[in-house]
Amino acid sequence: MWHGGAPDASAHAGSAGAGGGVRAGTESALGPGPVAGETVAATDGTPSGAGELVVSRYRNAAPIWTDPAVEEVLPQIRSTAVLAAIRSATVGMPVERAACAPFTHGRWAFSHNGAIPDWRRVLTEVAAEFGSAPLLEAESLTDSAALWVILRDLLADSPDAEPAGATGGDEPGEALRRVMAAVLGRSPRARLNLLVGDGAGVWATTWHHALSVLEADEFVVVASEPFDDDARWRPIEDRQLVRVRDGRVSVRPLDIEIGRAGS
Question: Which of 109, 68, 85, 94 minimizes the C-alpha distance to 9?
Fold first, then answer.
């Protein structure tokens, strides 16, 4: 699974297997356009020696059409879950490898398609509200990297942060909703299509940008837009939370009141 975005927009995609593995493909955007980094993170379903699932990540800040790994290496990826992103950097944001999603921590991988106006002020206030780690821990000076520092602390306490197959509530989805509510309460024009995976499940939000889901017999793909003409693709309405786990997809509205700080 690999998704090529439109020239003027970033894009991301996540895929999770239904009890098995998934493989990365190469429906790539190989043509001229703005500078865009392309990255992929895969979570291996086999525990490491410490008993935790292992996240492997590849990132490149160069335009995707110049990277031979897209055709030579990435198609060979096999994993219980794959998260991929293509970045079209917002004007004023750094173009560097550290700014490219997926951002990872432990078993988690994260991507953000969108933008947060006045993000330095907004995310400083949100971090203070949640008592999160200092934003200086962000890998890069971007809204997405700073947002991840806040979200990762909430995910660390999630019941779903257990080894694959463990039971638990929809805490990752609630973590996404809480962070989005806090951001939108301070920046109502923020665009927050978020995507997070833990190696066993994928959670995605729609807030301004498009999102589609493809359900196959052995895997599910969540992507910014369909990357082929498969009739099983279905669009997701705006302001929704998508959860994929054990081959099952659930979609529910994001209960967020605009213009109110926090939640």
Answer: 85
